[in-house]
Design a protein that fits this description.
This protein has a domain at 1-77 and 155-160 and 186-244: 3-Layer(aba) Sandwich (Rossmann fold). The protein has eight helices and nine strands. The chain is of the alpha/beta class. The structure holds adenosine-5'-triphosphate and magnesium ion.
């Protein structure tokens, strides 16, 4: 069997003495688009941070392309767009991309070319020389997405890439994800938008109250994802559904 792009086994995580993730098991196939759903506070961002080595699991293991140690070689294959991109406000969009590109071994002329390609892809050609503090929310989201692909990653993690975007921006993100996928890039994204999962993803999982409650291929769905989702949440909620 091919090595999964991501494999998570028996993952538990505590934050501030409270258990945030309970025995998460997930396997993401290389080259697929995977949508990670849903309610606020369910544990999506925390799971992503553990996969990326930004926070440590309390137990269990995570491997990216079979590597449990997140070596530099593996890190070079990863792109990441956080939920709230930290941005250097006094850089322009173009400078910000160059700054991020410098973390990788990309020759200067190749990097320059890549920056122009990305600015175009995320629709920021004409805002490329504007300082980031002058960017709108959606423009920041776009440049955040751009920096996630500066190293031509084999796997890209996007934490709610559509949030804050207008319909044109959402279409741009969708097209970009499909393009990445067509080139064999694995895309792992957190989202609340079920229709995007149905139209873009090969596979999805639902995390609810810190437990994984569903994990399947989109093509196996026998009903609209919304209906499926609501059923799963009802089946797996003890007492009132509350966000804590
Ligand atoms: N640094 C922290 N310290 C303590 N608790 C935290 C911390 N970060 C997150 N949590 C808690 O962990 C749980 C999961 O949060 P997480 O950010 O992973 O959710 P999420 O699924 O990404 O939600 P959203 O859809 O709102 O982005 C929440 O109950 C949250 O309150
Ligand atoms: Mg989140």
């Amino acid at each position: 069997m091919d090595t999964p792009a991501v494999s998570i086994e028996n993952l538990d995580k505590y934050l501030d003495g409270k258990q945030i993730l309970f025995d998460i098991n997930l396997s993401i196939r290389a080259g697929e688009a995977f949508g990670f759903l849903w309610p606020n506070g369910a544990g999506k961002t925390t799971t992503m941070k553990v996969i990326l080595g930004l926070i440590r699991p309390d137990s269990g293991s995570v491997k990216i392309f079979g590597d449990p140690s997140l070596s530099n070689k593996t890190k070079e294959k990863i792109g990441f767009m956080p939920e709230n991109t930290y941005l250097y406000k006094y850089l322009t969009g173009r400078e910000f991309l160059r700054f991020n590109g410098k973390f990788f071994q990309i020759p200067d002329d190749e990097l320059d070319e890549k920056i122009e390609e990305i600015l175009h892809k995320v629709g920021l050609d004409s805002a490329a020389d504007k300082l980031l503090w002058k960017y709108s929310k959606g423009m920041l989201q776009r440049i955040g997405l751009g920096q996630a692909i500066i190293n031509t990653p084999s796997i890209v993690f996007l934490d709610e890439p559509m949030s804050g975007l207008d319909p044109i921006g959402r279409k741009m993100v969708k097209d970009l994800i499909l393009e990445l996928k067509s080139k064999g890039t694995t895309v792992f994204f957190n989202t609340h938008i079920l229709s995007d999962v149905e139209s873009i993803c090969d596979a999805f999982a639902i995390i609810h109250q810190w437990h994984l409650v569903a994990n399947d291929l989109v093509k196996n769905l026998q009903k609209p994802l919304e209906e499926y989702f609501i059923e799963k949440i009802h089946e797996n909620t003890e007492g009132e559904f509350e966000i804590v």
